[in-house]
Amino acid sequence: MASTIFVLNGPNLNRLGSREPEHYGRTTLADIERLCRETGEDLGLDVEFRQTNFEGLMVDWIQEAGDVAQGLIINPAAYTHTSVAIHDAIRAAEIPAVEIHLSNVFARESFRHHSFVSPVAHGVICGFGATGYRLAIEALSDVIRT
Ligand code: DQA
Asked: From ligand 1's centre to the CA of 59, what distance in Å?
């Protein structure tokens, strides 16, 4: 049976394409979803792709991923830097998680240098734009298989 991975996206990422293109490029979230589905198909993974602007809903989805999926890719967006609830949910889900950011958060404001998510992530990818999602799926696929 194919493994399922959740790809979860946090606040304001629904605005990709027009939001701060100097940081996030012109790629839309729909483009990223397509890239994730194609990459998942190539690797024999079922991809559940979602975006929310609400922290509690993100927690619900991480819990759901823990129940039904074999791995998680998450761009928590601004919640990366604020959310103990998302940290706790990922820890409790007990599935491998990859934290991803389109921009290189370490080359930006200092408040973006701390992540509540990194300590509970298997690994972190940042700074490669939409390509990072493909890299994250490939890396997670390896982790799930081994
Ligand atoms: C982001 C980086 C975060 O600091 C920011 O709040 C975002 C997007 C990224 O993908 O580069 O909304 O997660």
From this structure: 18
